[in-house]
Design brief:
By secondary structure, this protein is mainly β. It has 3 domains: 1-65; 71-181, Immunoglobulins (Immunoglobulin-like, Sandwich); 187-268. The protein has 1 helix and 23 strands. The protein has one helix at residues 93-102; strands spanning 2-3, 40-44, 49-50, 53-54, 61-65, 71-74, 79-81, 87-91, 106-116, 121-128, 135-137, 151-163, 168-173, 177-181, 187-188, 190-195, 200-205, 210-211, 216-220, 226-230, 236-239, 247-256, 259-268. Strands 7, 9, 10, 12, 13 and 14 form a 6-stranded mixed β-sheet that branches. Strands 20-19-22-23 form a 4-stranded antiparallel β-sheet, with no helix packed on it. Strand 19 (216-220) and strand 20 form a beta hairpin. The longest helix has 10 residues, at 93-102. The chain is elongated. The chain starts with a strand and ends with a strand.
Length: 270
């Protein structure tokens, strides 16, 4: 490995005795160099040996490494979170500078991961093709596991850089931050979907204990139009003029015991 055109240093030796021949299986065709810094250019070549001794080295290849790590912002490390859908944010200004410089030569992918440390499992992972994004609401795509009350969580962000041929050439990781989730009491949202053509209605009960009364509720129809209303006694709302055979994204925002509750679900019509 050579740094910024300097002399080469040995990074890795698999320990083969070069004076004698060993029948060996190739165990790896890649090597990750973790000793790199933004702003430098690194050059590499590989030497190998067969039964006749050293064979020709590979061509020398270079990588410009100026991929900056992401800086986490919210929720702060060791924060207490009381909303089931917290917003994660980070500072990606330096990352965007990299994107501007490298746009013609390759592309980036960024990732956000959340782990439940109490039960030792991953609960959500999100990939962003648009690296200008600097915040996201937990489980926005409904692929994650709901946060569990009194659990400890870890979250972090990382970026992969690819060259124009799609080869991974560098990555950068943020620090891992943690938060404690102390959420509100689970709520019940009871909605009835009315289908005017058939005069048939169905109801959807969401498991919980306390109904969301006087909650603002939104449903998005098949054309992407949002309709809003307010839940009545027992948390009930009638969804009018719904097309048969369509799934509707239902969102309710209400308050229980002083806690704001945001609930999302997909409710099928007839």
């Amino acid at each position: 490995k050579s740094t910024n055109g300097g002399s080469f240093e040995e990074l890795f030796d698999d320990g083969v005795d070069q004076s004698s021949y060993y029948q060996r299986e190739i165990c790896s065709c890649s090597f990750t160099d973790i000793e790199v810094q933004p702003g430098n250019q690194y050059s590499y070549y590989v030497l190998a040996y067969d039964e006749k001794g050293e064979i020709d080295q590979t061509e020398t290849f270079s990588r410009n490494i100026f991929l900056p790590p992401c800086t986490l912002k919210e929720p702060q490390d060791n924060a207490e979170v009381d909303t089931p859908m917290p917003t994660f944010s980070w500072d990606n200004q330096e990352l965007n500078k990299y994107l501007t410089k490298s746009k013609a030569e390759g592309y980036l992918k960024t990732y956000l991961k959340v782990n439940d440390e109490t039960v030792q499992e991953e609960v959500w992972d999100m990939t962003f093709e648009d690296t200008t994004v600097d915040n996201v609401t937990y489980n926005l795509d409904n692929t994650g596991i709901p946060l569990e009350n009194e659990h400890e969580y870890e979250w972090f962000h990382w970026t992969d850089a690819y060259d124009a041929e799609g080869n991974l050439i560098a990555n950068a990781y943020s620090n891992s931050w943690h938060f404690h989730y102390k959420g509100p009491i689970k709520a019940v949202l009871m909605g009835k979907i009315m289908v005017a053509e058939t005069a048939i209605s169905i109801s959807k009960d969401i498991t919980g204990m306390i109904p969301l009364v006087d909650a603002i509720i939104t449903f998005t129809d098949s054309k992407g139009t949002d309709h809003t209303g307010t839940t009545q006694a027992q948390g009930q709302y009638i969804f009018p003029q719904v097309a048969p055979g369509t799934n509707y994204i239902i969102t309710a925002v209400g308050e229980v015991d002083g806690h704001t509750i945001i609930y999302k679900d997909v409710v099928p019509s007839i």
